[in-house]
């Protein structure tokens, strides 16, 4: 796994997804090296870089050109990217142009979550998986409801991570915001 502080950042682009959350997402993804994966809303590239190390082909989609640029720089910095296609498009348009996939990780949706999930599920091969990471309560609920409407059995895990910060007199645990991971079973 790539440490958080090894990502180049752009103050205008969210991410990277915290290391602990990336760990869980990669465990759930269960990639074995031959899969086609899509990262919807690649941001800084946190998830894209982990996918690039584990899948055979990765499509990293973001409608913000600054996100595509910083993801590209992070791929280059870590010597990854030969198997990654960067797509500066809205998620719906990008997914409409893709063929079969084994995994979709959705970290941004811009109010289009239902359509994004429909398109991802239409392209999903047997045994494939959809994973949504969500901070907003509304996104968590919508992801659960849409995936169930599409006929999936769904799991949800809420992650509340605290990291130790060293002070002169000891170690203080500093909480990060909770994130839900919603995934098809
Ligand atoms: C929270 S960030 C994702 C962070 C990323 N997982 C990482 O580890 O760096 C969400 C991203 O989704 C993108 N986004 C939101 N809605 C989108 C849409 N409909 N189509 C494409 N990108 C979208 C935003 O531009 C933003 O960069």
UniProtKB/TrEMBL annotation:
User: Cross-referenced NCBIfam families, in alphabetical order?
Assistant: CbiT
Q: Which SUPFAM superfamilies match?
A: S-adenosyl-L-methionine-dependent methyltransferases
Gene Ontology BP term (one): methylation
The reply on keyword Glycoprotein is: no
Where does this protein act, in terms of pathway?
Cofactor biosynthesis; adenosylcobalamin biosynthesis; cob(II)yrinate a,c-diamide from sirohydrochlorin (anaerobic route): step 8/10
Name the Enzyme Commission number(s) assigned to this protein: 2.1.1.196
The alphabetical list of record keywords is: Cobalamin biosynthesis, Methyltransferase, S-adenosyl-L-methionine, Transferase
Every Methyltransferase domain range: 35-136
Question: Which positions carry the signal peptide feature in this UniProt record?
Answer: none
CDD domains cross-referenced by the UniProt entry: AdoMet_MTases
Molecular-function annotations in GO: protein methyltransferase activity
Protein family per UniProt = Belongs to the methyltransferase superfamily. Archaeal-type CbiT family.
**According to the lineage, what is the superkingdom?**
Archaea
Q: Which reaction(s) does the protein catalyse, per the Swiss-Prot or TrEMBL entry?
A: Co-precorrin-6B + S-adenosyl-L-methionine = Co-precorrin-7 + S-adenosyl-L-homocysteine + CO2
Binding residues annotated for S-adenosyl-L-methionine, in chain numbering: 17, 41-45, 62, 91
Q: Does the keyword Methyltransferase apply?
A: yes
One family from Pfam that matches here is Methyltransf_31
The protein in question is named Probable cobalt-precorrin-6B C(15)-methyltransferase (decarboxylating)
